[in-house]
Amino acid sequence: AMEKSRPLWDNPLQFVFACISYAVGLGNVWRFPYLCQMYGGGGFLIPYFIMLIVEGMPLLYLELAVGQRMRQGSIGAWKIISPYLCGVGVASVVVSFFLSMYYNVINAWAFWYLFHSFQDPLPWATCPLNSNRTGYEEECEKTSSTQYFWYRETLNISPSLEVSGSVQWEQALCLMLAWLVVYLCILRGTESTGKVVYVTASLPYCVLIIYLIRGLTLHGAVNGLIYMFTPKLEQLSNPKTWISAATQIFFSLGLGFGSLIAFASYNEPSNNCERHAVIVSLINSTTSIFASIVTFSIYGFKATFNYESCVNKVILLLMNAFDLEEGSLTADNLNEMKEYLMATYPQEYAQLAPQLKNCSLEAELDTAVQGTGLAFIVYSEAIKNMEVPQLYSVLYFIMLLMLGIGSMLGNTAAILTPLTDSKAIAARFPKEVISGVVCFINCVIGLTFTMEAGNYWFDIFNDYAATLSLLLIVLVETIAVCYIYGIRRFEKDLHTMIGRKPNWYWKIMWAFASPLLIISLFIFYITDYILTGTLQYQAWDATQGQLVTKDYPGYALAVIGLLVAASTMCIPLGALLTFIRKRLKRESCSTV
Amino acid sequence: VLLLTLSVVAIADAELCKPDAQNAFKVRLSIKTALGDNAYAWDANEEFLFKAMVAFAMRKYSSKSTTQISNVLLCNVTDRVSFWFVVTDSSKNVTTVPGSEVEAAIRMNRNRINSAFLLSDKTLQFLKITSTLSPPVEPSTPVWLIVFGVVLCLIVAGIVFLVVAGIRQRKKKNKESTERENLEEKVEVTVTVENGIPCEALDLKAGHVNGVFAADDERFTSL
């Protein structure tokens, strides 16, 4: 019987779109703008592009080339490079598994917000009323309506990690739906994934363009843009700037998960992966910059809006206290009038003084937010103040969904490709069943993140499941290809595939620059963890209406250790097992 | 005598209506904020309307038609526009109606009073009287469940369709391959086999040159 040929992408465009859809994810939207703001505004682009050239493009090309040459998922591919490296493939699969467990919860939240966008007014625009209808909910009064909607109505967050609470059925439903959507996309392998990535790769750009036009025309957007793009070049001397740039490039491209290898394994052997690597990494970086322009115009709008509300509140307070005519106090003459009132009615003014806040636009712009806080709180706050907020809300959350699902497709491909490659499993079960089982297991485990303390566990996974392990995996990958497989052999393979050998830039980066960079990142993170001592997290305090820092309990630290160990230990264990197996075989052969 | 009674009344009024007097309420209007360019100026006519509305509210509340416009006293009108008012009881001498009654009356008819001035609870404030905030309209089924249901049905339909199509495709492929196998078996039975190779394939007349090895000589480098 003829062996079933490997499924292929219909055309190279599907492959490029799949890579873009996977690499361009939520990190481009919610992490890069934050880094830009923290580390010198426009000046951050310098270390960012240097890291892209030193680290991003070479490592991406390496992974794509390995996948395309070996035509197997991560486990099979590394086994071919050297039998002792099967542990690297397994480590990639383990990390991808951890990632897919918690990443889909973000899609669940995006669904939740999307479904709630079909109301007028938007549910996060106003605070709900308290029980006797004389005012607003106390927790909502202390904080803002958007934060209340996120922490109370969406997450129903508990005060600390120890208080687990119960599973929130609404979030569980959304999570189930998110997994059903992912299952629908991966069910038929590349056949279905190839068509879905056309949408998940291009739709976010349409929405970003719409938001760019809307964002730039918002009142006060320019303030945000000026604030962001003024370069603060002194930040370049801060080592954290360079480390953040390197980390961002590394994680933004999704190296080390095995997804890129999986995608590339479905390519025609003669596909020009060098050109595709350059294209994908450039598109990923430009999308980050594009997204941060949009984010900063939104920031500027929100900061200006809050600043003007603050000023209006002060004006109202003064008008009411001194019974001044409406319209006599404006934003322009506020300072003079304040001095006049202070001089004319010193006692009453002194009484009022604690309530008169000093409104500052700078302070509003300085609030730097990243992660889920940016995506779900800051953006929803800006959206509620726009005209036709329902339309912009729907567009925005559909964009988040596309970005999230695109990344999930890559993650699940990283898990499923090795499973469908292995003859033991693939012969017994059709791929629909394997995909179904993987989605089901992930969904059930993911229900932990829908509990009241779920967001704290989410933060643990987000911060620790992938960071150190990936650095180690990619380091071993680069060293394996350059020194164990041999860079000359790799060159020859590329020549067979593409038709030309890689030039000196690629070779120097692969052999020296990238490994050195990864080693220094690794050392930095380890020393950082050791120096900080106990790990802490941000817990939501409902009585104060803000986040407070708490220490992780012992069992949470154990889980963190387990997460890191589970993936990193695979590499040496795999090498050890292969060594033992070879030894046993040699012994059994020699005794014959 | 007339002058004397008038002045006594005026002094009595001043006694009853002053800031922070017993049973007096402060009112604050924000006409320009509410109406912008269509704002009207606050003058004596508007004050008359206000007195009329308060008297109306008192009449509706206590359902005895004894409260007159002259029973409502306004004082300390500022530019803001804010003032104090108090409702006197004509049946009892020089006393004011208890604040709780006035508050209840205003609460009951707040809507009518607001509409008379084209204002709302926020722009026509009675400082000691808290307004009951109207709750947002809640539909019987939350909207999000409806959208969720629609999306869920679409996704499940898509999954079922793809799975069924996959099963059908696989059945067709299996049927094809079993048909092909059956055909091969039938052919094999009638053919004599020599060393596992059907005799027809072997051209017993002349030897066949195996093409793969034909170019053998060229593979080696010439000396």
Distance between the termini of chain B: 151 Å
SSE order of chain B: HEHHEEEHHEHEEHH
Backbone shape of chain A: elongated
What fraction of the residues of chain B are assigned to beta strands by DSSP? 5-15%
Keywords (chain A): Glycoprotein, Membrane, Metal-binding, Sodium, Symport, Transmembrane, Transmembrane helix, Transport
Pfam family, one (chain A): SNF
GO cellular component, one term (chain A): apical plasma membrane
GO molecular function, one term (chain A): metal ion binding
Write structural notes for this entry.
The complex is a heterodimer of chains A (592) and B (223). Chain A is 72% helix and 2% strand. Chain A is an all-alpha fold. Chain A has one domain: Hydantoin permease (Orthogonal Bundle). Chain A has a two-stranded antiparallel ribbon. In chain A, helix 13 packs across helix 19 (389-421). The longest helix of chain A is centred in the middle third of the chain and has 50 residues, at 273-322. The two termini of chain A are 35 Å apart. Chain B is 50% helix and 12% strand. Chain B has helices at 2-16, 31-35, 44-62, 99-108, 110-116, 143-190, 211-214, 216-219; strands spanning 25-29, 72-75, 82-89, 95-96, 124-126, 193-194, 197-198. In chain B, the strands form two sheets. In chain B, strands 1, 2, 3, 4 and 5 form a five-stranded antiparallel β-sheet that branches. In chain B, strands 6-7 form a two-stranded antiparallel ribbon. In chain B, helix 3 packs across helix 4. The interface between A and B is medium-sized, with 34 and 31 residues.
Secondary structure elements and pairings:
The complex is a heterodimer of chains A (592) and B (223).
Chain A: H1 12-23, H2 26-30, H3 32-38, H4 45-70, H5 74-81, H6 86-115, H7 138-142, H8 145-154, H9 169-186, H10 190-216, H11 221-229, H12 239-252, H13 259-265, H14 273-322, H15 334-344, H16 346-352, H17 361-366, H18 372-384, H19 389-421, H20 423-426, H21 431-446, H22 454-464, H23 467-484, H24 487-498, H25 504-532, E1 536-541, E2 546-551, H26 554-568, H27 570-591
Antiparallel strand pairs in A: 1-2
Chain B: H1 2-16, E1 25-29, H2 31-35, H3 44-62, E2 72-75, E3 82-89, E4 95-96, H4 99-108, H5 110-116, E5 124-126, H6 143-190, E6 193-194, E7 197-198, H7 211-214, H8 216-219
Antiparallel strand pairs in B: 1-3, 1-5, 2-3, 3-4, 6-7
Helix pairs in contact in B: 3-4
